[in-house]
């Protein structure tokens, strides 16, 4: 007889019982008859949880029994009711699995009787307690979420089990069949029921208020297995009067308001939220008891189109979100095939916290995420008392975190391979960085405002670089050192943030021992191994098959995607193919698997970290319109030199630089397939006639600035949930709800243009950076990347927009980048006004590119500005040129014959560079009085074999 695993109604957990229904049986009763004994295949204890796996082909059979007890107790407690139905389940065709959450820390015994009568027992299982260090639990004895501080469910708690099968039919026990009526002033009256997790959690304020506040029931939502998006979530790119949402949002959010004391957790190691996410919201119209005490744990998030998790208050003082604990989760990148806003292809945030207080985010694992952790929606937003510890950021693109106003303690965090900016501060921010480990991170700390104050203590930087610093960062030599200055922002009680990390009224500081008063504070050298062992979901047991496709576009991580593309009519530049956005192409038909965990390749000044794996199934086809040259670039962690790739069945050897070049003929179809197992990072066909563009001069800067240019248009807006809806209600006990929508201001648009100049080596030159099509500007924060091998930036001088005593221009030059911040400029901006001037001295001949990216841009009245940037160049020649010496093949005029000469010819043929940037006489190696792709091919052949013959 099978149990009903799709049962929709969950049990209620009362004060006298740990689970919805349990049976207490003397120990001797469980062994009253002779039975076969067996050994668990997996058994153990975790954070207030027991788990086990055993051989069983039918664990749904009612003959299966599961009992547990403290080793010091006499009687076993046996699972029954919905706990038995959902917690005991088949893992695969041959194994059963049980997970028992909600236990106090201690030593336990476990007994399982399988469907064939075999009895499995294990004694002395250690169950550990969760690490409740940090601000979420500081000076708070009630327990965050629906569990007590000892790990047991709170009195009167309700448990709701959610599976992919029952997600649209499950109801909250005790509230089955009920409906709630709404009479908004801006739309027709409507009625909501509580059928399905979408109806329960998304925008059904009266249901949630009645259960969690009026009737005082904490709720535990337990997710089992992979759960795809349920019905009744927010819609795509629109505001619905019933379901909420907002213009510009990708949807699929459950926005929960008027709530408190909620835990959302996964059961076992495979609980996954796939394609949707959660937001908890508090506004000034919500009951004052709401917006408090939320916990999310032991879940994996994938493919969320908007946010995976968001916690948001309406005002950090009057209506904050507070007491939030996010721990032991795994986050992969989000995904939206057709994002409502261009920067949301990977969702809008993995885990964000805005306008609130008492927040702890711990033991989470972020893998290849893009817009990862935002603490504050804009520079004017404040949030207080935030702790981030023992998190693992693995090859994350940005926001680790991005912090606006407030105070943050980040400790024992493992930053691994950050690809853009690691810890990023702006606004009036005070951050204490303690015992963190940075492993090969780009821009491991950056501050955008002079009110960003950071204290760094006992941190390790394995390799990497520091970003531009507009504020102050002090490396402390002792824990008690005064290093956090007054940044002008006070705590809600009026206390200054100065040295908050040693102020016992504002921080968990052990004065006697001069240390942070936390449960676990690892030595910095131990952080990588400890965090990798403890961050993320419960990982002990047998993996279940997961065919979920994790689709990424511009992030690095450990995900792989197998897809195929469909070609359409090619346009200019389409023959250049990298795999940052998968296999989609308008020039090629590609079938194969991409990966962003195979290292990276630098080519023509750009670095690529996504590749196509050359496997037996891999197939690339294309048909050029004109004669040309195919270039394939291999490499990464798998050595490609000396190995081969097949083109139309013929094996071509990869040279020592990882490159294969082959001439292609117009109208001929070419098929590229596996020769050896190597990884392809870049390919391009340079056709004669300028139909394609190698994009070599632009791709390097484009990839490096994607995050910066998009953040300015998104972070200052109030984001998904605030824009979604702000409810106004007359009284908590009345039925009328008045809804009002606060739309984000329409962003302005403008252009920032770097002038192009001619210069000579050794002669200082001024390069203006102008703004066009802009009428007002409140603040601007930009970076200008330059070629440090060709120019030195001496200083940044004022243009004609910083004109009075209230205005300010600041800059910082480091690592080939100039960071420039402008505050309170002239009220009226004329078209073509100079924002600032770069004062540079050329040091080498060639073309130096100046690429501007925007971190933040605001017009007056808080409007964001959508900035389009136009790069500038300095064409540098010798001060006293010497008569030319022609070197055959030296197209770029640097006296050497090298692969850049191939690129120079291809760019010239494609029309990307002019004749002034190439030595046409040296480039014409076949001496036919023309520079064509044939010359590029002959130079590449020369580089391969070492001879012109």
Can you give a write-up of this model?
The chain is mostly beta strands. Helix content is 9%, strand content 37%. The chain contains nine helices and 66 strands. The chain has an 18-stranded parallel beta sheet that branches. Strands 41, 42, 43, 46, 47, 48, 49, 50, 51, 52 and 53 form an eleven-stranded antiparallel beta sheet that branches. It has a six-stranded mixed beta sheet with strand order 1-6-5-9-10-2. Strand 44 (601-603) and strand 45 form a beta hairpin.
Query: How is the biggest beta sheet arranged?
Result: 18 strands, parallel
Number of domains: 6
Shape: globular
| Fraction in helix | under 10%
Strand content: 35-45%
Per-chain topology:
Elements: E1 22-26, E2 37-38, E3 42-46, E4 49-55, E5 65-70, E6 75-79, H1 81-87, E7 88-90, E8 95-101, E9 106-113, E10 119-127, E11 158-162, E12 179-182, E13 190-193, H2 197-201, H3 205-214, E14 219-228, E15 253-257, E16 260-274, E17 277-282, E18 292-297, E19 300-302, E20 307-313, E21 321-327, E22 330-331, E23 349-354, E24 356-362, E25 365-367, E26 374-375, E27 382-389, E28 392-394, E29 402-403, E30 405-411, E31 414-416, E32 423-425, E33 429-434, E34 437-439, E35 445-447, E36 452-457, E37 460-461, E38 472-475, E39 509-510, E40 515-516, H4 527-534, E41 560-564, E42 577-578, E43 589-595, E44 601-603, E45 606-608, E46 611-613, E47 619-622, E48 628-634, E49 644-647, E50 650-653, E51 659-664, E52 670-674, E53 679-687, H5 699-714, H6 719-724, E54 726-729, E55 737-740, E56 748-754, E57 757-760, E58 765-772, E59 779-785, E60 791-798, E61 808-814, E62 817-823, E63 834-842, E64 846-858, E65 865-870, E66 872-877, H7 899-910, H8 920-923, H9 933-945
Parallel strand pairs: 2-10, 11-14, 14-16, 15-17, 16-18, 16-19, 17-20, 18-21, 19-22, 20-23, 21-24, 22-25, 24-27, 25-28, 26-29, 27-30, 28-31, 29-32, 30-33, 31-34, 32-35, 33-36, 34-37, 36-38, 56-65, 57-66
Antiparallel strand pairs: 1-6, 3-4, 4-8, 5-6, 5-9, 7-8, 9-10, 12-13, 39-40, 41-43, 42-53, 43-46, 43-47, 44-45, 46-53, 47-52, 48-51, 48-53, 49-50, 49-52, 54-55, 56-58, 58-63, 59-62, 59-64, 60-63, 61-62, 64-66
Helix pairs in contact: 7-9
């Amino acid at each position: 007889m099978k149990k009903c695993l799709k049962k929709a109604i969950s049990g209620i957990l009362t004060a006298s019982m740990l689970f919805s229904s349990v049976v207490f049986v003397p120990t001797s009763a469980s062994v009253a008859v002779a039975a076969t004994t067996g050994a668990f295949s997996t058994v153990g204890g975790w954070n207030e949880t027991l788990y086990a796996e055993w051989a069983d082909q039918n664990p749904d059979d009612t003959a299966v029994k599961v009992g547990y007890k403290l080793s010091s107790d006499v009687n076993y407690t046996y699972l029954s009711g919905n706990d038995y139905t959902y917690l005991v389940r088949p893992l695969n065709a041959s194994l059963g699995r049980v997970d028992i959450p909600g236990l106090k820390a201690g030593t336990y015994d476990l007994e399982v009787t399988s469907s064939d009568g075999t009895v499995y027992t294990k004694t002395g299982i250690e169950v550990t307690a969760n690490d409740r260090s940090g601000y979420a639990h500081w000076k708070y004895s009630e327990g965050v979420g629906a569990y007590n501080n000892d790990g047991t469910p709170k009195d009167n708690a309700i448990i709701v089990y959610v599976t992919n099968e029952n997600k649209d039919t499950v109801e909250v026990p005790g509230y089955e069949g009920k409906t709630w009526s709404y009479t908004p002033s801006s739309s027709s009256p409507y009625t909501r029921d509580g059928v399905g997790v979408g109806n329960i959690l998304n925008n059904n304020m009266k249901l949630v208020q009645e259960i969690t506040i009026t009737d005082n029931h904490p709720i535990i939502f337990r997710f089992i297995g992979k759960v795809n998006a349920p019905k009744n979530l927010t819609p795509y790119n629109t505001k619905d009067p019933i379901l909420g949402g907002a213009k510009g949002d990708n949807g699929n959010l459950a926005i929960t308001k008027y709530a408190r004391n909620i835990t959302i957790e996964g059961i076992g190691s495979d609980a996954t939220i796939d394609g949707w996410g959660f937001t908890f919201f508090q506004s000034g119209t919500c009951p004052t008891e709401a917006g408090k005490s939320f916990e999310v744990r032991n879940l994996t998030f994938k493919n969320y189109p908007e946010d995976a998790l968001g916690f948001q208050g309406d005002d950090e003082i009057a209506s904050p979100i507070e007491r939030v604990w996010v721990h032991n989760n795994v986050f992969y990148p989000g995904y939206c095939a057709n994002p409502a806003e261009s920067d949301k292809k990977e969702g809008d945030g993995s885990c964000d916290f805005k306008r609130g207080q008492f927040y702890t985010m711990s033991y989470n694992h972020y893998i290849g995420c893009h817009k990862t952790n935002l603490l504050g929606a804009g520079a004017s937003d404040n949030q207080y008392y935030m702790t981030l510890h023992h998190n693992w950021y693995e090859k994350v693109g940005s926001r680790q975190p991005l912090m606006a106003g407030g105070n943050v303690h980040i400790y024992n965090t493992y930053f691994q391979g950050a690809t853009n900016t690691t810890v990023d501060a702006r606004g009036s921010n005070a951050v204490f960085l303690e015992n963190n480990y940075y492993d090969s991170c780009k821009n491991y700390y950056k501050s955008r405002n002079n009110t960003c104050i950071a204290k760094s203590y006992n941190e390790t930087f394995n390799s990497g670089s520091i970003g531009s610093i507009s504020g102050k960062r002090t490396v402390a030599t002792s824990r008690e050192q005064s290093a956090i200055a007054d940044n002008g922002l006070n705590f809600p009680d009026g206390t200054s943030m100065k040295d908050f990390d040693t102020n016992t009224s504002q921080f968990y500081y052990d004065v006697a021992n001069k240390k942070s008063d936390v449960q676990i504070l690892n030595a910095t050298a131990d952080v990588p191994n400890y965090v990798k062992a403890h961050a993320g979901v419960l990982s002990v047991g047998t993996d279940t098959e997961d065919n979920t496709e994790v689709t990424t576009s511009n992030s690095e991580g450990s995900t792989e995607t197998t897809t195929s593309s469909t070609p359409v009519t090619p346009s200019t530049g389409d023959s250049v193919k990298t795999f940052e956005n998968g296999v989609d192409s308008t020039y090629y038909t590609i079938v194969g698997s991409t990966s962003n965990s195979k290292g990276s390749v630098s080519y023509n000044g750009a670095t690529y970290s996504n590749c196509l794996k050359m496997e037996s199934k891999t197939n690339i086809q294309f048909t050029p319109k004109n004669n040309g040259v195919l270039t394939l670039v291999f490499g990464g962690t798998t050595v490609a030199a000396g190995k081969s790739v097949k083109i139309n069945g013929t094996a071509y050897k990869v040279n020592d630089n990882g490159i294969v070049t082959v001439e292609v003929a117009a109208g001929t179809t070419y098929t590229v397939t596996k020769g050896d197992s190597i990884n392809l990072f870049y390919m391009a066909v340079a056709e004669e006639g300028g139909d394609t563009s190698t994009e070599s001069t632009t791709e390097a800067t484009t990839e490096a600035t994607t995050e910066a240019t998009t953040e300015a248009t998104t972070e200052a807006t109030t984001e998904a949930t605030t824009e979604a809806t702000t409810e106004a209600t007359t009284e908590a006990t009345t039925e009328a709800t008045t809804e009002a929508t606060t739309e984000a201001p329409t962003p302005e648009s403008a252009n920032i243009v770097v002038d192009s100049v001619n210069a000579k080596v050794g002669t200082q030159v001024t390069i203006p950076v102008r703004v066009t099509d802009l009428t007002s500007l409140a603040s601007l924060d930009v970076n200008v990347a330059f070629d440090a091998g060709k120019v030195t930036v001496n200083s940044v001088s004022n243009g004609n927009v910083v004109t009075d005593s209230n205005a300010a221009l600041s800059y910082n030059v480091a690592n080939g980048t100039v960071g420039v911040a402008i505050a309170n400029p002239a009220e009226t901006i004329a078209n073509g006004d100079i924002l600032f001037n770069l004062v540079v001295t050329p040091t080498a001949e060639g073309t130096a590119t100046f690429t501007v990216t925007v971190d933040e841009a605001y017009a007056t009245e808080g409007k964001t500005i959508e900035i389009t940037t136009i790069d500038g160049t300095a064409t540098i020649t010798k001060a006293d040129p010497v008569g030319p010496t022609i070197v055959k093949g030296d197209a770029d005029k640097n006296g050497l014959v090298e692969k850049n000469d191939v690129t120079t010819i291809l760019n010239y043929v494609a029309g990307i560079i002019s004749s002034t940037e190439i030595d046409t006489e040296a480039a014409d190696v076949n001496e036919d009085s023309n520079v064509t792709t044939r010359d590029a091919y002959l130079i590449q052949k020369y580089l391969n074999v070492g001879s012109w013959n």
